[in-house]
Amino acid sequence: MSAKRKPEPKLFVLDTNVLMHDPTSLFRFEEHDIFVPIMTLEELDNNKKGMSEVARNARQASRLLDEIVSGSEDGIDGGIGLYEPSHELATGRLFLQTEAINTTLPAALPTAKGDNQIIAVVMHLKQRFPKRAVILVSKDINMRIKARALGLEAQDYFNDKVLEDTDLLYTGTRELPLEFWETHGKDMESWKRDGHTLYRVKGPLCPELLINEFLYQPESPKNDRELQITVRERSGKTAVLETLKDFTHQKNSVWGITARNREQNFALNLLMNPEIDFITLLGQAGTGKTLLTLAAGLTQVLESKLYSEIIMTRVTVPVGEDIGFLPGTEEEKMAPWMGALEDNLDVLNKTEESGGDWGRAATMDLIRSRIKIKSLNFMRGRTFINKILIIDEAQNLTPKQMKTLITRAGPGTKVICLGNIAQIDTPYLTEGSSGLTYVVDRFKGWPHSGHVTLQRGERSRLADHAAEVL
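The structure assignment produced for this chain is given below.
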């Protein structure tokens, strides 16, 4: 009986946008081969100038290709072996277009366009290697549609996705079953610390819990009010749970703001905890992300003086483009993108009842002196010490940009990322590959980070109804 023949490796043709999105994509196709058309190299060359993220990635992709090609001793006609730099393991082979390709394209596809020339390369390779799977990899939806219309196989680049299904994204909260205390409360220890009650519980649910995850048990015949606790420690089948501060009560208001629902209470417990250095808040418009963050930030800067000032930044889509055509200073240039900040400051200033108009004006001047607005374009090389860094609209950041920002944090700095992954405006970013999704997934369970997905809108009955019916 003859041995089963090993299938031929697939041949992936890379579109330029894949390399500009992730320059290391060359090493992400395992044992399969990669073909880079000449037009891809041309487009990399056309996009290499400038200070944008796309230009930086184009330059990095060109440098990687240069290292691979110049390091090959056997020439490039038979393919160049690719090695994963971190593992020194052979993955597949890299082929560069070295021949003229005159595949006939339909009349509706002009050959002068770069996308169509890359599609022509895919058609040529399919004819040349009829027994191999030839697949176009592109982040461009229309290009994939065109390729499929011509009978070619096309795929999105999936390797950058943190999650295939964002419904699986960590929410930071978990509902406890009604029988939780019966199954986990045997031999339970409890003690007081800083006004909070702590419980040490054991049971099958404990290994699933994450540090700083919020747990709740709705009101029931057994509980006269809803129970809300957080996970402080976890080891095997043992966990230490701690009761929360009730920010829904007026006596615990933060800059005059109280929590209106369960998730807002969870968020304020994170925001007001000096031991938490990194916080992510997800939620649709009107859930209170920015308002809660600013209220907590102002309280800790102006009242408790834990931090020296608030730095607020926001993605100016398209990301990384020059904002120099707007007049004024850096803060004045950013003003058109900071309408949400102004709206929330107006709300916070109205919570100050005493002092009248003059008092409110003086308070607003004091608040503004402690809030600095910075552009993402000028964050490289900076270090923020003892500050609160708020990154608004963080869903429009790539994982690489997110790393660049978070690593700006110096001693005593708290970083807060706000966003809604259903509203991504950056080309080629999806809910699964957004930098916000990336950090939520990577930071979960770290003792000095926390995450909450806010569920309920709290703007007005009109806004709530519009969100439901429109």
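Interim note for the steering committee: The first strand starts at residue 11 and ends at 14. The first helix runs from residue 16 to 21.
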